[in-house]
Amino acid sequence: MYIPIFIISLFNKKTREFFKKRLFQDPENRNFLEKEEKAVFIHMSSVGEFNLSKELIEKLLEKKEKIIISVMTDTGKEAVTKAYGNNKNIKIIFFPLDDYFMLRKVYKNFSVKKTVIIETEIWPNLYQTAEKYSELYIINGRLTEKNMKTYRKIKPLIKKTLNKVKKIMIQSEEDKERYLDLGVKKEKIYVFKNLKYSIKYEILSEKEKKELLDNYTINGRKIIVCGSTRPGEEKIWIEVFKEININSVYQLIIVPRHLDRISEIADEIKQTFGEENFSLLSENKKNDIILVDKMGMLRDFYQLADFVFVGGTLVNIGGHSILEPLYYGKMPIIGEYYQNIEEIVKEAKKMKFIKIVKNKNEITEYLKKSEIIDTSDFFKKNDEIDKILKELYGD
């Protein structure tokens, strides 16, 4: 395993750093556990899975558990460290890339008693080690059709690996069928509501909200926020805005998925509106169109919006999260490409809390109706975390 990694690392500093952090870290106990204490090991891929796990982590801390959090990505490690870096009951490590010897060291050093996988990261050595030294659980498990194409090719290995899990708590009946298709024993599978419905997002204070409104929005205008936009989507919304804003009724705020496209999007806006009708957020001035060139602002602007479009859906990306606008009471407008968020879209459709459009004309027609719907009820209180804890602890 290490020979090809060593060869690749010789030529690429970034790759060298990636493997060094994960395979040559020092997961020592060093007074983390008192005598006879055992830890709960939680593995997640990145920031998204961490956000899903926050309430579970808090509940485990209430139970006085010591927790090892394993993450795959640098951004995931940063997010967990920001939230729990100073908590003496939590140790944060990089996932050691399914290296059996490093995993065994972690499990022995920290006397791991329970292992929790968030969603479905299938690592044969992790599952083998976790089963040997602890009880192994999958929480919020899911399998996409894309995953299934790969897993079916190596079904004997996947079947053997997944059946090491004591309980698999999954998101939907469709996921249940996929697990069964891979040969997982039926009695191991439990269907729960998606943990995404348990997320609690930060809400702006009245002062913060007023400051944003005063600094960037035009009084009396209906605010359209286009979030996580992808190439091709901004052009559609620029054309829509040109058609509907003849009487200066609307303001358009575009928050692209990737900030390295700011210049490209700015050029598209200038071609239609010239320079005088749009501003970058960093310019700190009001305008018909504002292009957000700063990270971490999307949720704030969702809270100001009258209408929200969620990107990656008018072009074939598969869709980005619609949960934030729903949480803030804003009905998301999306295109027809939502395969990555299908289960949540299905739930929103049941409650008539989503608008699916095919093209520019349908967007324009919908906006002209000015139908503003409060979607706050989508996040009505649920007790999924408490149900999951009962499965983990049997109480």
UniProtKB/TrEMBL annotation:
One Pfam family named in its UniProt record: Glycos_transf_N
Top EC class of this enzyme: transferase
Enzyme Commission numbers on file: 2.4.99.12
Residue span, 3-deoxy-D-manno-octulosonic-acid transferase N-terminal domain: 28-198
Site features described as Transition state stabilizer, chain residue numbers: E119, K196
Gene Ontology biological process terms in this record: lipid A biosynthetic process; lipopolysaccharide core region biosynthetic process
Family: Belongs to the glycosyltransferase group 1 family.
Protein name per its UniProtKB record: 3-deoxy-D-manno-octulosonic acid transferase
